[in-house]
Amino acid sequence: MKRYAAYDPPEYQNWRPDPAVMEEFRTRVMQDPTRRSVVSALTPQRHLRLYKGLVRNRLHDITLKRWVRQGVISKAWLGTGEEATTIGAVHALQKGDMVGPMIRNAGACHEMGMSIADMLRAYLGTEDSPSRGRDIHFGDLAKGVIAPISMVGALVPVCAGVALSFKLQKKENIALTWVGDGSTRTTAFHEGMMCAKALSLPLVVFVQDNQIALGTPLESHSAAPMGRVATIYAATKYICNGNNVLDVYATTALAAELARLGKGPIVVTAKTFRMGGHATHDEGESRKILREEAFTYWGKRDPIGMYETFLAESNLELATDLTNREILEQAEQEVHEEVEEAARQALESAKHSIPNPAEQQLGVFAGVS
Length: 369
Ligand SMILES: Cc1ncc(C[n+]2csc(CCOP(=O)(O)OP(=O)(O)O)c2C)c(N)n1
Ligand SMILES: [Mg+2]
Fold this sequence. Notes:
Elements: H1 10-13, H2 19-30, H3 33-40, H4 44-70, H5 83-91, E1 98-100, H6 106-111, H7 116-124, H8 155-168, E2 175-180, H9 187-198, E3 203-209, E4 212-213, E5 216-217, H10 218-221, H11 228-232, E6 236-241, H12 245-263, E7 266-271, H13 283-289, H14 292-299, H15 303-313, H16 324-352
Parallel strand pairs: 1-2, 2-3, 3-7, 6-7
Antiparallel strand pairs: 4-5
Helix pairs in contact: 2-15, 3-12, 4-5, 4-15, 4-16, 5-12, 7-16, 8-9
């Protein structure tokens, strides 16, 4: 995809596929027969939708970054480099399933059907945004999205509750939530896991191990390997490569299938890397905290660049009248226009849809009298 000198991390700016890394990408799903069969069942249309989802996620984040630079908003929490953990997982779900994304999983919101204009309006705090200007944590229950919760780890018990409701209603649906490596060390995480295991709930917990908790690297915040959390609860565990969207997709599909069969909770652990800061304000700091080699290593593994190369070079026929490269460029252009139009609409809202200060304490959990 097009790279943006002003917004992309330096490792992405002149991104070229590394042959050894591409070989790693292709063999990753091929070496496991079960994952291979899940990926083989993907139609060209579904591949294209997966690709567009990744691009949409990146361009949504780039829009926010642009707004920060322009002074439209003060900061944004981005998922740059981690898009595959969100998009691959959401695309593996079925109708009626519910997700509980962290703020870094904004891609889950648009792939579950929320409008990007509304997501951007939330950042602008407009009256016509999902929380009517009260919170930048937004969801839409009708679309199966539970809003992120600021207290990290808190979505695990909430999603266990959603999973319990599915079980009680004898529905075949599952709940999926993402948890950061740091957040697996919270009380809420353990309470949620304990409940999900005791009641065999159809819950998939996706541990998004980006190897840092805010500004504390993994080796400083955790003594035990990240994959061990599943063992504590005797939960079925899967490990996948968080930058390989096909691996994430296949693994989540297998995890979801088991959860639907009453074998939950399932823990999927995915290693990935944050190619920026905790938010836009500390990008420089994270370059000092994390090793440069880590940025180089993960920079070569841009989830979008790898998947785009895979699709362009594969003999899957994405369209009959165009080459795969042409159809991917066309898809990117479509998503680009969609996100630009959403940004235009959101900025338009900011001109006239301003919340009334007198009503700001209405519709919240606890107002101050
Ligand atoms: C319960 C709670 N404690 C502390 C914080 C402050 N905080 C916000 S993000 C974060 C780090 C969480 O680490 P991780 O789960 O790895 O997420 P990442 O930083 O990778 O997004 C912390 C400590 C919080 N939001 N909630
Ligand atoms: Mg983390």
